[in-house]
Write a structure and sequence with these properties.
Length: about 240
C-alpha cells in the first residue's frame, strides 16, 4: 500500500500548490488554466480511448452505463455531496457556484486519477509482486495534474485523494484474484471507457459541451464485464451459425 499512500500524498501536495497559485492568478488568466487543463485532458482521453479492442464494447458500455447513471441520478448525488462538503468543511461565504466547483473538482479529479490502466495495473503489480515503479510514475503525473485542476476548480480536488486510496487500495489488496479475471483485455476496455469520460471532462473545461460525466461512471463497471462475456457470446453465436 506504500505506493498508494504516496499517490494520495502527491495529489494532496499538488492540490495545495494549485490552490496557492489559484489565489495569485488574475481572473484574466484563468482562461489559460482552463484551456490548458482541458487540452491536456483531451490528449490523455484520446490516447486512453484508442486502447479499446472493440468499439462495440466501448459503445454499449457508454450507452448502457449512461442509461443506468441517469436513472440513478449519480451526477446529482455527487453535486449534492459537494454542496454538503463545502458547507461542512469550507470556510467563508458559501454559494451554489462554490459548492458546484467543489463537486466538479472532486468528480473530475477522481475520474482522471482512477480511470487509467496505470491505476489498475500498477496497483495489481504492487500488491502481487511488490513492483511499485508504475504507481510511482503515476503519482508524479497525478501530482502535476492536481496542480492544474485545483487551480481551476478549487479544494474539491483534494478530496479525490480519498477515492484514490480506496480505488487503488482495493486493486492492490485484491490484485491476485482480480488480475486473472480481468485479463489484459478487460483492463484495456476499462481504460478506454475512462478515456471517453476524460474527453467529456475536457470538452467541458474548454466550454465546448457540458456533459454529466458522473452519470456515465457505471460504464467503467460494464466495460470489463462485456469484455469477459464477448468471447463466450461470439463462440456461442458462431456455434449456432448466427455469427
Amino acid at each position: 500500500m506504500f505506493a498508494t499512500y504516496f499517490n494520495c500524498l502527491t495529489v494532496i501536495i499538488g492540490s495545495l500548490l494549485g490552490l496557492m497559485l489559484r489565489n495569485r492568478i488574475k481572473p484574466a488568466y484563468q482562461e489559460v488554466v482552463f484551456a490548458s487543463s482541458g487540452l491536456v485532458t483531451l490528449v490523455i482521453g484520446f490516447s486512453m480511448a484508442l486502447k479499446t479492442g472493440s468499439y462495440l464494447i466501448l459503445l454499449f458500455s457508454i450507452v448502457l452505463g449512461g442509461f443506468i447513471g441517469y436513472a440513478l441520478r449519480i451526477e446529482e448525488g455527487i453535486l449534492s455531496f459537494g454542496s454538503f462538503a463545502e458547507k461542512k468543511w469550507g470556510k467563508g461565504k458559501h454559494t451554489d457556484t462554490s459548492s458546484s466547483n467543489f463537486a466538479l473538482g472532486f468528480l473530475n479529479a477522481s475520474v482522471l486519477f482512477c480511470s487509467g490502466a496505470m491505476a489498475v495495473v500498477g496497483s495489481i503489480q504492487a500488491g502481487t509482486v511488490g513492483d511499485y515503479r508504475l504507481l510511482m510514475v503515476k503519482s508524479i503525473m497525478d501530482g502535476c495534474m492536481a496542480i492544474i485542476l485545483s487551480a481551476a476548480f478549487g479544494p474539491g480536488v483534494i478530496a479525490s485523494a480519498l477515492v484514490v486510496l480506496v480505488y487503488q487500495g482495493f486493486f492492490t489488496l485484491a490484485g491476485g484474484v482480480i488480475s486473472p479475471i480481468l485479463k489484459e483485455s478487460g483492463i484495456n476496455e476499462l481504460s478506454a471507457v475512462g478515456g471517453v469520460l476524460l474527453l467529456m471532462i475536457g470538452f467541458g473545461l474548454l466550454d465546448i459541451k457540458k456533459f454529466k460525466t458522473g452519470n456515465f461512471l457505471p460504464a467503467m463497471v460494464l466495460a470489463p464485464l462485456f469484455s469477459l462475456v464477448s468471447p463466450v457470446l461470439s463462440s456461442t453465436l458462431h456455434g449456432l451459425g448466427l455469427w
